[in-house]
Design goal:
Blueprint (H helix, E strand, L loop, with lengths): L18 E2 L6 E3 L6 E7 L3 E8 L2 E3 L6 E7 L4 E6 L2 E6 L4 E4 L4 E4 L5 E9 L3 E15 L6 E11 L2 E3 L4 E3 L6 E16 L7
Antiparallel strand pairs: 1-15, 2-3, 3-4, 4-11, 5-10, 6-9, 6-11, 7-8, 7-10, 12-16, 13-14, 13-15, 13-16
């Protein structure tokens, strides 16, 4: 599959906050055919998915794309990025260029990861990961908010880990006893150059 991020939607998303769970999306093959991903949302400049990693898996190359990866179903994932071994934690995540040579190593049981891909030059990605308790207001500045771990609800509906809340004008709250939440902010890149 190529990185077809869509052609009609804007950076922020739809007019309402949408809630998407991993069960709402169908499995698709990686561009290199070696793995499976479930796309939660895609817009002109970005795509958010849950990728399944099993054993030793080289990632597909996506030149011109910035990537953010956060473990979902395990506390850590071992990645080799351009020959450098990295242990990626759920509390930190990792960013890398789509043209980087990346190989994931997991046990046979496999690991799910949140995978954000952003077209370089169209948007600049930023993210933060926080452990939260109680009523957590969905940040209107966050393009996408993802539940990484813990039991939570939104509008009294249960949110399984990997669920994404897309930006919208209506105030929403995630309610939880304790939950690890990732907030992604995607700012449009300016076409103006400063000399």
């Amino acid at each position: 599959m190529s990185l077809d991020l869509g052609a009609t939607a804007d950076l922020a998303g739809s007019a309402e906050v949408d809630v998407v769970t991993p069960a709402d999306s169908t499995a698709e093959s990686w561009a290199n055919g070696l793995g499976v991903t479930r796309v939660l949302a895609k817009r002109l400049a970005w795509r958010l998915s849950i990728a399944e990693l099993r054993g030793r898996m080289p990632f597909s190359a996506f030149p011109g794309v910035d990537r953010l990866l956060i473990p979902l179903s395990a506390r850590t994932v071992d990645l080799t990025v351009d020959g450098i071994e990295r242990r990626v934690t759920r509390e930190q995540g990792i960013g890398f260029g789509g043209e980087s040579r990346v190989v994931a190593t997991t046990d046979r049981g496999g690991v799910s990861v949140v995978n954000l891909m952003v077209k370089r030059g169209l948007a600049a990605p930023a993210y933060r990961i926080e452990l939260r308790r109680g009523a957590v207001r969905v940040d209107p500045a966050a393009t996408v908010t993802v539940l990484l771990a813990g039991a939570a609800t939104v509008d009294d509906l249960p949110l399984p880990p990997g669920s994404a809340l897309l930006q919208g004008p209506r105030e929403r709250f995630i309610r939880c006893e304790s939950a690890l939440i990732a907030r992604f902010e995607l700012s449009p890149c300016s076409s103006e150059r400063t000399l």
